[in-house]
Amino acid sequence: MSPVTPRSSGRPADVESPVDLRLVSPDGDAVALPVVLRYSADDPFAVTVAFGSSGEPGSDVQWVFARELLLAGLEAPSGDGDVRVWPAADGRPDTTCVALSSPDGRALLEAASSDLRAFVARTLAAVPRGGESRCMDLDAEIGHLLTA
After folding, report:
1. What does the pLDDT average to over 100-118?
2. Parallel/antiparallel/unpaired status of strands 4-5 and 83-87
3. b (16+ CB within 10 A) / e for 110-142
4. Residues 99, 78: contact at Cβ < 8 Å?
5. Given the DSSP bridges, would you call strands 4-5 and 14-24 parallel, antiparallel or unpaired?
């Protein structure tokens, strides 16, 4: 799988990256959990984490949250809602923690910070910080909101 998918329309490329997360159980054990991180200029403020992607449409669980949250969480604790991201505080220099919370439960995940940094760097190459609004068709977005 290519980490960057070219677009023929001249818009920035989409970014997709498989990453191995670790699902941390309450007793501290961790289980490998492969996911796919996705970024699209069609939704330039967001990143998607797809769990259990078997290749069949609709077969995976997806969490969508702000790219800025992931970027900030690599440096310091970030987020106060359903998604929180922070560097591991126990001396593991290449570990970032991600906490997900929903009415159905909670999950604590760990990822290699270097993998997340590489993914974020590719998203920033596709759409630099501050350039997100140039990727959006505001008239179409407003029209969608008005017809919803």
Report:
1. 95
2. unpaired
3. bbbbebbeebbebbeebbeeeebeebeeeeeee
4. no
5. antiparallel
Confidence (pLDDT) at 28: 86
DSSP secondary structure of 114-134? HHHHHHHHHHHHHS-TT-GGG
Quick one: pLDDT band at residue 103, thresholds 50, 70, 90?
Answer: very high
CA distance 108 to 88: 12
CA distances for 50 relative to 21, 136, 137, angstroms = 11, 23, 25
- Strand, coil or helix: 15: strand
Judge whether 60 and 50 are in contact, CB under 8 Å: yes
